[in-house]
Amino acid sequence: MTKPVPLPALLLGFAGLIPPAALTAVALLDLGLFAPSTPGFVLTYAAVILSFLGGSWWGFVSREERPSWVLLGIAVLPALGGWAAIFSFQPPAALFGLAGALVATLAVDALLVRRGLAPGWWMKLRIPLSLGLALCSALSGWALIR
Prior knowledge:
- The protein is mainly α and 146 residues long.
- Helix content is 76%, strand content 0%.
- The protein has helices at residues 7-15, 18-29, 38-61, 69-86, 91-114, 122-145.
- The radius of gyration is 16 Å and the shape is globular.
């Protein structure tokens, strides 16, 4: 049986969904002056979170005495994907791509837990957070093309 998610990680993690959820609501409901630009803010936020996840993975992999080239290389990919999305200059497609990338990160998270590099509670936190931000990203992309 895995331990529960530590309260600070749980509260801070879910607090991190507040900005993209609020911005997505503004975009979907066409609320106010900033509504047209809010999907861009969500795109940037999702790219930053991808970089954060890659950094987390790097930290987990670095716990090994001889870190794997493959796992360290995988840890670099989220940051590169985030930058590619920002510089694609195609916000709807970038937001949909980020949504897919956020869902895909769960496979690496699960691998790190199985290898004992990430804490056992990691997936309990990562699944709702990754899916929540992926949903915000996809809905923000949809708000741009509807």
